[in-house]
Specification:
single chain, 179 residues, mainly alpha, 2 domains, two-stranded antiparallel ribbon
């Protein structure tokens, strides 16, 4: 009596792992780590990423607009906040609407197109803009362009750090909203 030989199958991404699980869309072999449970069954990460790409329509120009708006407006607002010397408690409340307005402005200027990395670019540009605002504050206050002094002022000023952090988080979250 002959026994049928079983052929072993391995994950496409991890060739050292045996599996029999296949993506229900493309048929690719995948291990439990690569599988993503969807309402219609298990799919591979590549098919999930292709499906998600339909929702991201931003171009490289949109990323530049997002970075420019987020960085520029945060620099202006950080300059104003540092110049006026607003108390820390109020900055917690001011940072939320300022960040929301900056995020909304960037979304409107890009036609509400979002990219996979729009939120990260907007938040990073907001942090850089906050540092630029600190440099501008020192430059306007002293009349000298001294970036090293400005960075020391920025990193020692807790109110500026809190304001920029709150603004960056809110700008990031504005890009993660579905509306």
């Amino acid at each position: 009596m002959t026994t049928p030989t079983e052929t072993l199958t391995y994950c496409t991404v991890h060739p050292d792992r045996e599996t029999t699980l296949r993506c229900n869309k493309c048929g690719r072999l995948m291990c439990a780590e690569c599988a993503v449970l969807t309402p219609v069954g298990y799919r591979c990460r590549q098919c999930i990423r292709q499906q998600d790409d339909r929702f991201f329509s931003a171009s490289q120009n949109d990323y530049a607009v997002i970075a420019g708006v987020s960085g520029g407006l945060t620099a202006i607002s950080a300059l104003i906040v540092t110049w006026v010397n607003i108390p820390l408690l109020f900055l917690l409340f001011i940072g939320v609407p300022v960040g929301g307005a900056i995020g909304e402005m960037a979304l409107r200027l890009t036609g509400r197109r979002r990219g996979r990395y729009s939120g990260q670019i907007a938040a990073g540009a907001a942090v850089v803009g906050g540092l630029i605002g600190a440099v501008a504050f020192v430059w306007l206050r002293t009349g000298e362009f001294a970036p090293e002094l400005a960075l020391r002022v920025a990193f020692s000023d807790l109110t500026l750090i809190v304001f920029v952090a709150v603004t960056a988080v809110v700008v990031y979250s504005r890009f993660q909203m579905r509306i």
